[in-house]
Amino acid sequence: MESTGIPGLLLDTAPDAIIVSRSDGTITMANRRAHDMFGWTGEDLAGTSVDDLVPEDTRDRHPQHRAGYLSGPHPPLRRLPLRGVRRDGTVFPVEVSLSAVAAPDGETYVTAVLRDDTAQREAARTRSLLASIVQSSHDAIVTTDLDGRVLSWNPGAEALYGHPGPDMIGRSIDLIIPEDRRGDEAQVRLMVRLGGRVDRYRSVRRTAKDEDIAVSTLVSPLIDERGTIVGTTSITRDISDRERAEARVQAILDAAPDAVLGVAESGEVVLVNAEAERLFGHPRYDLLHMPVALLLPDGLPAVSAVLRTGGDSTPLDSERSAEESDQRWATRRAARRGGAEIPVDIACSSLHTESGVVIVAVVRDISDRLAAEEERRRLREETDRQRLEARMQQAQRLESLGQLAGGIAHDFNNLLAVILNYASFIVEDAAGTPPAVDAEQIARAARRGSDLTHQLLAFARREVIRPRPLNLNTVVTEVHQMLDRSLGEHITLTVRTTAGLPSVMADPGQLEQVLVNLAVNARDAMPAGGRLTIDTALVDVDFEHAAARAGLPTGRYVRLRVSDTGTGMPKEVIDKAFEPFFTTKPSGQGTGLGLATVYGIITQAGGTVQIYSEPGVGTTFTILLPATDAEAHQGGPEQSVAGPAGHGATVLVVEDESALREVTCRILRRGGYTVLTADGGDEALRLAATHSVDVLLTDVIMPNMLGRDLAEAVRSRWPGTRVLFMSGYAQPVLTSHGTLSADVHLLEKPFTGAELLRALHDELRTRP
């Protein structure tokens, strides 16, 4: 039981546990501290055995120890180490002091004073551990009194400063402080004496060899057991090697072409390089500890993402080109330089340091790159514009040449018609005589001139055509058979056609002429032999296609490509290749109208033709013709049926060129026709008012009145009158976009007598 009365109160206030027991170990009294120590609060230890207060592993031996102590002289035992066990089974160390006394009743009582020394032992262990740490630390740990005299000097200090510990105890700490730093160190000690703590700072110390070393020092107050500041404790580390390494790293960073920022977890900048100073327009001491949000307001998400994940950043958009992409880059962000924003790229990665995670942000100024890209874009647009202008200028130049050629062809065809037919009269009237032979030569020259005018009109897109839906593969196959026989054995001809091509709307004769002209040019470019390839394919022209950028409407086109392995052409020749009468062949070996004719035929059909050539490599002509859904025409050409002479049918001939009018009348009269003549529309209308006219044979282009208007006026007077137009330059008077209407009959100049009579016969034969 607990003690009672004044003695009991005194025992209960004792700081140590007191337990009294009989010789058999039965507890007769225990104070409050004993109950608390062993966890018997609320229960009475009296009546229990002291054996229950020791751990089970020693409980069996405890009665023997007790009996041995009581069997002989039993002097007091002081501060014996013992282990006790609490009510909950927890084992803890105690110190026990024992004394025994014999009572008058003959019983021996043992008084045990127990002290729980767990805290003391832990404190002693801690002090020992701290002392061991101080002694084994590689850092210099030095304590001084308030006057700066050394109180302790660990082996780390001996190694760092070179002064033995016994020599430094009691001496001033200024011995290791350079004179120019002593004032600063005195201020540090003053701050510590006032209760402050100085975090690590860089300074300089002097060794026993009078060498200055760079150090990092932490200074804190030295406090005694009463809580009084009695001096300072400094922990110092040699950072000379570290500073040199940091200096090398900083030099590398300063040499980097991109700005480098180190960002702490707090968002403050803790590392900068020289390029960062230039990029952001702030000196280094201003950038350090500045919130990164002030420098990278638009790029902050990239830094935050790395801070959250501890990994590398990923791109925040996809504006970079494939050759520039990098998984670490957040592209096209904004940085702030003063009050202005500049475009930057940002790459971030995490770096784990002693002070926590630091985000290394590499910031690249892309102002120059964007300016260069913009300049390249401008130059591309300017180049495209100049190229388009050059094409337009070339087209305008060719158009002007075409108009000139058309005008010349009109008058020249009239002259050729006169020459050709008068030569024919001589041949017929003087057959077998020398004059007939001469006249035949004149007629041959006139026909040659007629071919040239047709080529001029084809180039100028003024020749009247009769287009129909065609399968380009069929045209290529037919020309292939002809070219096989005419190109020569030294030329290898290869034709590749793509099945299922849609039709194109074109004149088959003109397409054959295009292929022949290109094949002949290729043959002439390969005098020693070579390879000529003709192929067809279907092409979709979109807005990005080169032909579309040159002005060709988008859509489906059938491609005809003619390639040779000849001598090729330089750029200055390519630029003039389509101009009429331009040729690189020797004098007398070319007219210069072959490619001009190709250009005119293809453009008149709504297509385009392009040249790619390199000297010594060869030339490729690429032709694009609009595709059509119309079915290809399968029939052969219509055949004219020769018929008898005129038998008195009346023909009104209207021609403003007197020589051609006279020769035309002579042909008709010899063919049995009754002829009325007029030199213009007004005179023709007067004749038509008084004479019945079977056929109106009129020139298309005349002063004061066009042939089409004259035909309408005559038909209003004589509705059954047939009309046959004659012209060497009918477009655009009779045609729509170069296409002759089905109800318009045209006799192209220059014509022979036979051609004129056959055309009149066909016109009269179609009379309903």
Radius of gyration: 59 Å
Strand content: 25-35%
Distance between the termini: 152 Å
Mean pLDDT over the full residue set: 80
Uncertain residue ranges: 312-328, 635-644, 736-740
Shape by Cα distribution: rod-shaped
Count every helix, treating DSSP H or I runs of 4 or more residues as helices: 24
Q: Kindly state the number of beta strands.
A: 29
The largest pleated sheet is described as: 7 strands, mixed
The assigned structural class equals: alpha+beta
Oligomer: single chain
- The share of residues in helices is 25-40%
How does this model look, in words?
This protein is an alpha+beta fold and 768 residues long. Helix content is 40%, strand content 27%. The chain has 24 helices and 29 strands. Strands 16, 17, 18, 19, 20, 21 and 22 form a 7-stranded mixed sheet that branches. A hairpin with a 2-residue loop joins strand 27 (735-736) and strand 28. The longest helix has 63 residues, at 367-429.
Q: Keyphrases for this structure?
A:
768 residues; alpha+beta; 7-stranded mixed sheet; 5-stranded antiparallel sheet; 29 strands; rod-shaped
